[in-house]
Amino acid sequence: MSLPAATPVPHPPTHREVRLAARPEGPLATGHFEVVSAPVPTPGPGQVLVRNRLMSVAAVMCPLRLADPDALGLPQLLNKVGDVMRGPAIGEVISAPGTDLASGTLVRHHLGWREYAVLPAAEAPPIDPEVLPDPAAHLSQGFTAWLGVVRGAGVRRGDTVFVTGAAGGVGSLAGQFARLHGAVRVIGSTGSRKKADRLVEELGYDAVVIRGAGPIEEQLRAAAPDGIDVLFDNVGGEQLQAALAVARRKARFAIVGALSAQLSEDALAPTGISTLALIARGVILRGISGLDHLDALPEYAREFGRALREGTIAYPHARLTGIDQAPRALVELIEGRHLGAVLVEL
User: Fold this and answer.
1) Which strand (E) or helix (H) includes residue 240?
2) What is the DSSP letter of 143?
3) Which is nearest to 202 in space by CA: 308, 340, 344?
4) pLDDT value for 59
5) What is the rounded distance in angstroms from the CA atom of residue 112 to the CA atom of residue 115?
């Protein structure tokens, strides 16, 4: 039965939002963004006005540097200068005329980077506290991690798994999901000894390859002397090449990210790998995107929620406070200053 929406909650006439001020030509900096005041939007019939309370930042939000922007074929990934940034957020309903959403309801949507947002009610589903015990977990990148482990690579009992970018929001969960699905040895990569130690001590990694501590292939061979069965790849570049060099026959590679190219001068920069090695070893190389597997969301949510409640998975994350800290949060994430996800309280 449909219920009438509750009386709208008063709100200020203006709010703050973060816009892309300039496309970076070098390292990302807070100066590439600007925090501006704008009128609070008014919802029409079937729309919902949301007061955002918590948002997440992720490496995929970094403005891309492309030698040929048209070559990507995905214009929705390209923020234009002056655009308000976008990303997952949790907020409370302020008003929702002509819908069943009552004011005060917590919803999840993709218009973060602003204090208030208006969007179709269908794009702001209520959060179900019975599915995930911590509301912040709805902003995790757990679906990407689970998808790469379960559908991308098909991790199974006895596998040796290599997770690149293991200290990020995706990698910090991917290694844990791999263990839950039977991996006997989980190896990660990260950029510092401090984070490497935390991956082992807090998240159950068996060994960690450290960027800058020597050739990746040599480190990976030492960590996996018998080779790897699975690559969960967030990075590409040298780390993908190293994984192929030590891959066992019929290894499965799930490619979920390409940070080495994305943060370079050209996000479409290629990684050179041997197709002959792929063929000779029967390696399966698969790019995987959540947009192609939305049917898996209920299964993922059940498994993630159960693991969180049982304590078999941890959700590491850092929090910064205030919309004005959102640019800093993204810069610090790109610089590798945090372990796990990075959230901003609004």
Assistant:
1) helix 237-245
2) H
3) 340
4) 85
5) 8
Q: How far is CA 159 from CA 186, 229, 248, 335, in A?
A: 8, 6, 10, 31
**Dist. CA 45–CA 54, nearest whole Å:** 25
The rounded distance, in Å, linking the Cα atoms of 283 and 287 is 13
**Would you state the pLDDT for residue 264?**
60
Q: What is the DSSP letter of 83?
A: P
Contact, 224 vs 215, CB < 8 A? no
- Cα gap 195→261, rounded to integer Å: 22
CA atoms within 13 A on the CB side of 68: 6
Cβ pair 68, 51 in contact under 8 A? no
pLDDT tens per residue, range 181-212: 999 999 999 999 999 999 999 999 999 999 98
CA–CA dist 290, 192 (Å, integer): 29
For the stretch 126-163, what's the b/e string if a residue is b when 16 or more beta carbons lie within 10 angstroms of its beta carbon?
Answer: ebeeeebeeebbbbbbbbbbbbbbbbbbebeeebbbbb
Contact at 8 Å (CB) between 59 and 168? yes
The model carries a pTM of: 0.89
CA distance 101 to 126: 8
Residue 6 predicted with pLDDT over 60: no
Using alpha carbons only, give the angle 128, 52, 176 rounded to the nearest 5 degrees. Answer: 50
Q: How many CB atoms lie within 10 A of CB 222?
A: 11
Alpha-carbon span 68 to 277, nearest angstrom: 30
Average pLDDT over the chain reads 90
Nearest CA among 106, 153, 96 for reference residue 128: 106
The pLDDT-based confidence of 3 (bands split at 50, 70, 90) is very low
